[in-house]
Design goal:
The complex is a heterodimer of chains A (about 400) and B (about 375).
Chain A lengths: L4 E6 L2 H9 L8 E4 L7 E4 L1 H4 L9 H7 L4 E3 L3 H16 L5 E5 L2 E5 L4 H4 L2 H16 L3 E6 L2 H10 L5 E3 L5 H5 L12 H8 L6 H5 L3 H8 L2 H9 L15 E12 L2 H21 L2 E12 L4 E12 L2 H13 L4 H4 L1 E13 L3 E2 L7 H20 L7 H9 L1
Parallel strand pairs in A: 2-4, 7-8
Antiparallel strand pairs in A: 1-6, 1-7, 2-3, 5-6, 9-12, 10-11, 10-12
Helix pairs in contact in A: 4-6, 11-12, 13-14, 13-17
Chain B lengths: L1 E5 H14 L11 E7 L2 E7 L3 E7 L3 E5 L1 E6 H11 L3 E7 L2 E6 L2 E8 L16 E4 H9 L16 E7 L2 E7 L3 E8 L9 E6 H10 L4 E6 L3 E5 L3 E6 L8 H4 L5 E6 H12 L9 E6 L2 E8 L3 E8 L7 E5 L1 H10 L4 E6 L6 E4 L4 E5 L2 E2 L3
Antiparallel strand pairs in B: 1-5, 1-7, 2-3, 2-6, 3-4, 4-17, 6-9, 7-8, 8-9, 10-15, 11-12, 11-14, 12-13, 13-25, 15-16, 16-17, 18-23, 19-20, 19-22, 20-21, 23-24, 24-25
The chains are: A alpha+beta (about 400), B alpha+beta (about 375).
Chain lengths: ~400, ~375
Amino acid sequence: MKNHILHIDMDAFYASVEQRDFPEYRGKPIIVGGNGRRGVVASASYEARAMGVKSAMPSLTAKKLCPKAIFVPSHMQEYKNVSIKIMAIMQRYTPIIEPISLDEAYLDVKGSEALFGNAVTIGKRIQKEIYDENELHASVGVGPNKFLAKIGSEFNKPQGFCVIDWDKRFEFLDTLSIRAIGGIGKKTADIIQNLNIRTIHDLRTTKLTTLQSVLGNMAEHFFNLANGVDDRPVTLPQKALSIGKETTFAEDIYNEKELHSKLLKLADQVASRLRKKKVMAKTITVKVKYADFTLVTRSNTFEKSTDTTKTIYELALELLHKLKDIRKKGTRLLGISTSHFEETGTGQLYLFDEDEENTKSQEVDRVMDTIRAKYGTSSIFSGGIMENNKKK
Amino acid sequence: MKLIFKQSAIHEAILNACNVVPQKSVMPIIKNIKLEAKNKEVRIYATDSEIELTIVINENIEVVEEGVVLIDGNKFKSILQEIGEGDYELTEEGNSLILNGLGCEFSINTVNSDEFPIFESFEDEPDFEMPGITLKGMFEKTVFATRDEPSRFQMNGVLLSGKEDQINIVATDTTRLALVNKKIDKPINIDEIDCILSTKFVHTLIKSIKDIPVQIKTEINRIKVKSDNVTISSKLVSGIFPNYKKAIPECDIEIKINRNEFLSALRKATIFTSEITKSIKFSFQNNILLLHSSMPESGEAHISLEIAYEDEPIEMNFNPNYVQEGLKVMTTDDVVINLKNKKRPAVFKGNEDYTYLVMPVLSRE
């Protein structure tokens, strides 16, 4: 069995980005996350980890373990930006990438080996390019499947690089705790440990039927993983099936005009997300939760897809008019969602599309998008939304 | 009122009248149809307040006693459907109309006929005249290209335009357009005709007119069509029809193709298209038209077809249903496809007088 799966995992990602951007944090125990009573550790630098701090740990516990820890606020946008750059580096080597989170992804390089060399070469190149271009370290695992690649990337973190060949898999697996298997959490681990099984070696040498008697359906999956067998493919992220936005109001709305203005704001937000994602929607759904908590949706699918604020608002308004109870009942929540997408610039073309009205609203959207890109989302609104805000 | 009639004499007329009767109306009276027996003939009236249909029946019917009644047309239609062919008698008795014959007796409640709208008459000089079958054919070749899609398209009607001895009928839903042109024997009486007809009116016309000359008269907001025994008038659709002439491109590429083979190939390729994204790839090259359709979740089809085309290869995508619908109403053995570029419509031509445009679908390159 050939090694063609890579698992790439950034080392202490958020904390490392902070240490990179703020030199005063370097070499110090950094915790990204909330400092308050209910705060949780989002990411800890290796200096903090050395004291026993782990991700997802309550901040209070972390403070006890590491009183000198410096809590820093997170910069999510920057982490996302860095993530895009890192994913782009992986894209140079294969299109088959399954991102697990901002800082972690599986890659299938079977098809690219002829071009770039074997999986190990590709893994080394990606690791080097991530560091050269971002001053951040990644750990890389290489193996014949996702499970072994993941075990590899964790093996000698940070800055690790580990190849787990099929023949040598048990050298790596046998001594590991069963908790190293994805999906075995504390509860499952307790059940298995009752059978006196603690390591992966214990698990794989247990009879499958014994495991099935306590674990049911999941037994075979865990048993296979313990044997290093994993046939889950690297799957591309699924495209969003719907794009929408909804708001729950501070006070129930009875005034129809006010509701229309809220609808316009939602249409504006949804349409600009569509344009950002470069898709156009064929189906528009309006969702209303009345003051009495009953939920209704109305939906319509059109042959012609759209991404303009004006059209989405008009279609949503039409759907809203179908809700006869809306005047009586009062509205607690309002939402618009869109689905059945076409990529912008594809799809059915139309005769007479140079229709003035249409071109005008597209032009308005384009200008609004440009202004928002420069000055922020709340820098410009349609008149309908502003008018209502003024009244307040 | 008392009538003796053959079922076949009035069955079709009642069917057509019932198609005009609205499902819902603010005027409950028009949910009925009016029967009027006078001067040896029976007139059937139906309206939805926009369309007015009058059908005269004078064959296989005997007026024994004159009179006017208003009845629930749909009930009468169901009765005629069930009783089948044969001779029947219809007699007004008090507030009922009694139908008798072949072992059946039905008593249909009648409604006071005074409130039923009075229809406009057709007495003026018509704008033009043409054979009913020709007019019917023109509508049949175009009306399918309209679409009842709420809100998105203002244009829900068929354009009738005429000048001198030329009559044009155009229909579009903005993805495709059908245009038919006919020369009439006697030039039209007025400068120009330019009006939009509702699709319901067009469908009523198609069902009601026969192969006898029809006279057409247009007014500011109404159209009237009269043949020997049918008169239909309708309110016009207000609005401006899009500039369809501008939409027809000047094309450099011309491809001739057998219509039936083309239709069959399209049907095969359509198997692998989905409701939401209906599009197949048309590749024209080396005297072959290759149709390719695919559905990632179910499979794909490659269908090839001999054509006369040797120039630069062209690849375009179309909704196969749109292409099929146009080809189906054509009557010639061969059709000619004219192409301009990937973003302009394909023009399909059978006879000289018929033009059908389909806008392409842009795919991801």
